[in-house]
Amino acid sequence: MDTATAFELADTDAIGLGALAATGELSATELLEAAIIRLDAGRELNTVITDLFDYGRARAEALDASGVLRSGDSGPLAGVPFLIKDIGASLAGTPEAMGSRALRTHVAQHTAWIVERYLEAGLVLFGKTNTPEWANHCTTEPSLFGATGNPWGLDITPGGSSGGSAAAVAAGIVPAASGGDATGSIRVPAACCGLVGLKPRRARTSLAPGAGHILEGLFNEHALTRTVRDSAALLDAVTGAGVGDPYSAPPPSAAYLDIIANPPAPQRIMVSTSSPFPGPATDPAVVAAVERTAAALAELGHHVEPGAPTIDPDAVADAIAVLHNVSNVGLLSLARDHLGREPREDEFEPSSWVMIQEGLQTSGAAYADAITAMHAQTRRFAGQMLDHDVLLVPTLLTPPSPYGLLDQPRGTTRAFFDVEFATTGWTVLANVTGWAAISLPLGVTADGLPIGVQLMAPDEAVLLALAAQLETAIPWADRRPLRWTRQSTVHLDQGEVP
Fold this sequence. Notes:
By secondary structure, this protein is an alpha/beta fold. The chain is 38% helix and 12% strand.
């Protein structure tokens, strides 16, 4: 693989790369080596914290030797290089620090069900992406591995907790990478990096074999992509239940790739530009992006009207704090088992330590009350959406944030989330309700930075179909950051916008 071709391939999405492999124009090995060239050229962004090149090369060589890529039944993603997030996407026998100093030498003991499905789809895994400790933050700047750079500008966060994956996709290293989302951790980095970020509906994918659910159902996994069709194809690959799952989502009516091939029936869309939580007003550039999207949807034949379901913001924030506190006690337990001793405070991020200490003091009654409150707010939210099919809102209430804002301890976990929700707004409501939600790169600031617009609905099918319509109506394919993966990379100065 020559260097020039490797960089040219950065503009091709996952399905496009899969087609090159299926026709024999390029082998899986050649596609992988091209991705490694781009990764090495973009090392300054610090997207990948564990190289799995030997693993990837062995897998690519096996695919090439088997003839499966050209068999006609290998699927649209076979042979495509892919990166997995260093939490939630375990690969047995590989390092898995989860952004934590306490787990710096931890090795995954099993392969996650979702990773097995990636492998069955023919994806070629070759690295693990940076994430904040225990996925606690909507930014990616762990002290263990250092901050991941945003390809759009070195002074703004790529978001989190799937920031390493998002930055790798935005920079053109790979066309897609895995992510997880508990309060917005796929959609926030999608907004910060100008990508498509879908959080599936609750239980669309399995968390086997490690868990039945995480954070009482707040958490789900999917991917960051540049195109809607790649998001649909990846969801097709991982949809379904694992053996023994406590519950699962109803199966889709058809493959998601087939669903996006046709426009959806007219939808009843409620649109809001304000936040459900107290805080500053939504940035005018974000408001403009949402309003432009609403106008485009109306032109496409959908019924769009202003409105917003209301929730009790204190009840939601209190419940989220309690659930995260108890979850972080799990981090302490995992670290204790791994180290064979009691972990020290300096082996955790300061904000994680606050959560751990509060979690150790949380009673069973308080935890049960948090679950009850979350379910009550879900019913309140859903009841107000009965006359509408889709909610259109900002992904972030502001343009991409500077570093050092969304990972700092605030004295209490509740105060920590108050700061987060003043930036993220609606994202957590999709996790609380279990609704599907997708962030699309439909706006830009005056300085050219990406703005994400979010669609929420009970199911992914309508969201992907609407997203495909918007991808045509308000194209974003040519809106790319400075290429960090050129042979002679021209780097940004701090604060400079490409």
